[in-house]
Amino acid sequence: EKLPSRDKTRADGVLWRLLKALPEPYLSKIALSYLIHRRKRRREMAYKILRRTEIPVTLLDDLIVLYEATGDEQLLHLIARNPGLVVAADERYLLAEIVTSYWQMRVIEALLLQAPERAIALASEYPARFVHAIGRLEAAEHLPLLRLLLADNRADTSFLGIYAWTLGK
Question: FRET partner for 132 with CA separation of 20 to 30 A, picked from 39, 60, 141, 160?
Fold first, then answer.
């Protein structure tokens, strides 16, 4: 932190190479601490590391607390990328806080993988996201439920588009 500004970029590069060599759970814990660092480069490194690692469930509460303190939706995206974290979290909270429909669908997709009954309970509230998740997983076992959703959402053209795509998968 006390380096001259011209050397900080180089130091961050060295730090990045060292971090990539660390094993879990040390890597995730250090990356988590960099999520609130004042240097943008360190925050970017943290997101890059956490996007490609399976975050331990023990860090779920830390991610939620960080999200509530900063309001950075990327923290919730990290949770949505990890099915184990989604199952351990309150899916209704995640779906209410996440604004982007794609990431809402990722929450439902994670539930379909690990706790399908919880995902099915959300199907009528989030029909387009549910259908999109079914298409991504190519889960043909849910076709009867898709037919019921079609009957309820016939007038929604965006739903029909994702429905047709899912049937193609």
Answer: 60
- Amino acid letter, residue 11: A
3-state secondary structure 46-70: HHHHHHCCCCCHHHHHHHHHHHHHH
Type and span of the H or E element at 15? helix 5-21
**pTM here?**
0.86
Alpha-carbon distances, residue 28 vs 16, 31, 39, 40 (angstroms): 13, 5, 18, 18
Q: Where does 22-115 have alpha helices with state H?
A: 26-34, 40-51, 60-70, 74-81, 83-88, 91-97, 101-114
Which is nearest to 76 in space by CA: 114, 84, 38, 86?
86
φ and ψ at 99, to 5 degrees? -90, -40
CA distance linking residue 152 with residue 163, whole number of Å: 12
Please compute the mean of the pLDDT values over residues 141-154 and round it to a whole number. Answer: 94
Provide mean pLDDT across the span 73-85: 95
pLDDT for the residue 8: 86
Burial code (b: 16+ CB inside 10 Å, e: under 16) for 9-47 equals: eeebeeeeeebeeeeeeebbebbbebbeeeeebbbebbb
